[in-house]
Amino acid sequence: MNNTKPMEELEHEHHIIERVVAAMMVLAEKLQSGKEVEAEVRNDLVEFLQVFAKDRHHAKEENTTYSRCRPSKKINVSTSVTKVIAASSPLL
Questions:
Q1: For a disulfide at 64, which of 6, 12, 27, 57, Cβ 3.0-4.6 Å?
Q2: How many CB atoms lie within 10 A of CB 19?
Q3: Are 28 and 89 in contact (CB under 8 A)?
């Protein structure tokens, strides 16, 4: 996103992540009902969470937001969020 403020870009990325998580919930329901979900789809979703959400987005959040809130303490958001998602998602 060109010419956007950092917080606007983060908000836009949150919407993207929310849409992907919503899609994951639909796929999880399919799996729970005994239907198949292609392995490639599951792998792509996991890759999205690992690369975009965890590595790129959360690092940007730490650099943009959290570093201003608690400059003396590093917050490891990506690890915590990943653990919560992994624990609650049958796709991972």
A1: 6
A2: 10
A3: yes
